[in-house]
Amino acid sequence: MNKRKLLAKALAGSKNMRFREVVALAEAFGFRLSRVKGSHHIFVHPRVPELVNLQDVGGKAKPYQLQQLLEIVERYNLELEPGEEP
């Protein structure tokens, strides 16, 4: 699924997004995996002082963590990075 479709799915309020889709969306906004501790995947962004925590629970992402990611994207006016569509 390409970046714009993933964003549309997330903005539509999907509570059933796969963990790898949410990771791809975070990376499309410029977040990079910093570390993993247990099920916690911590992402950082060079322009954002906050960390993004995502957890894989049975292949799905936790809906509240997806919402937190979207709020950070909006708060810092992040845009999808240009480049190849997945």
Question: Helix and strand layout, with pairings?
Answer:
Elements: H1 3-11, H2 19-28, E1 32-37, E2 40-45, E3 48-57, E4 60-61, H3 63-75
Antiparallel strand pairs: 1-2, 2-3, 3-4
Helix pairs in contact: 1-2
Order of helices and strands: HHEEEEH
When the domains are counted, the total is 1
Sum up the overall morphology in one term.
globular
CATH class: Alpha Beta
Number of strands: 4
Q: Would you tell me the structural class of the helices and strands?
A: alpha+beta
Gap between N and C termini: 7 Å
CATH topology (level 3) name: Metal Transport, Frataxin, Chain A
Count of DSSP H/I helices: 3
CATH superfamily: Hypothetical protein
* CATH architecture designation: 2-Layer Sandwich
Q: Can you give me a brief rundown of this structure?
A:
By secondary structure, the protein is of the alpha+beta class. The protein has helices at residues 3-11, 19-28, 63-75, and strands at 32-37, 40-45, 48-57, 60-61.
Q: Please, could you describe this protein's structure?
A:
The chain has 86 residues and is α+β, with helices and mostly antiparallel strands. It has helices at residues 3-11, 19-28, 63-75; strands at residues 32-37, 40-45, 48-57, 60-61. It has a 4-stranded antiparallel β-sheet with strand order 1-2-3-4. The longest helix has 13 residues, at 63-75. It is globular, with a radius of gyration of 12 Å. The model has no long low-confidence stretch (mean pLDDT 93).
